[in-house]
Amino acid sequence: RIGTVPIYDRGEVIYPDIVMVYHPQVITMGKSYTMPFYSGIKDNGLLIINSDHDLLTEEDYRVLGEKNVKVLTKDFTQFAIDIAGTELATNMAMLGALFGALGTVSKPAIEEGIKDRFLKKYTASGGTATLDSVIEKKFKKKMDLIQKNLETASAAFDLTAEWAKEVGLGQMLEDPSAVVA
Predict the structure, then answer these.
(1) Number of helical H runs and strand E runs in the chain
(2) Are 180 and 2 in contact (CB under 8 A)?
(3) Is 113 domain-assigned?
(4) Is 9 part of any domain?
(5) Structural domain boundaries enclosing 89
(6) Residue 100 pLDDT greater than 80, yes or no
């Protein structure tokens, strides 16, 4: 959750400005709490889908078009593999894509956040700790891991920043200088 004021609510977001689909099965197999998966997205919203092909129907495009929702479909898993050498960097590609599209968080701020996450002993959950262990085994040195994540996030940032200009995506947050994550 990202906003211009602290967010304390941990429940489901009913009316999101942005929907990010990390796994195509959310769409293809209906693995979403709401159907369609973009139900409730606000006007002028953003939909980022990690897929190697277009998954939306004509009806989806009609509904999203009426709401002026911008849609970006890109295989961010392959993007991560091409840059970092592993699909485990897909989340960094998606993060970079989000911030590139929004234009609200600078590359240095993203770099600082990634370094903070991987250089400190921050653990969000047991699952995160397990994933960290797997990732660290894949990369001989933690700095290699950080560098690959930075490269992936940065490349995705550049890609979507350009896309956002092409499709006329304006800033979605009212005061980007006050972003909290």
Answers:
(1) 7, 3
(2) yes
(3) yes
(4) no
(5) 83-166
(6) yes
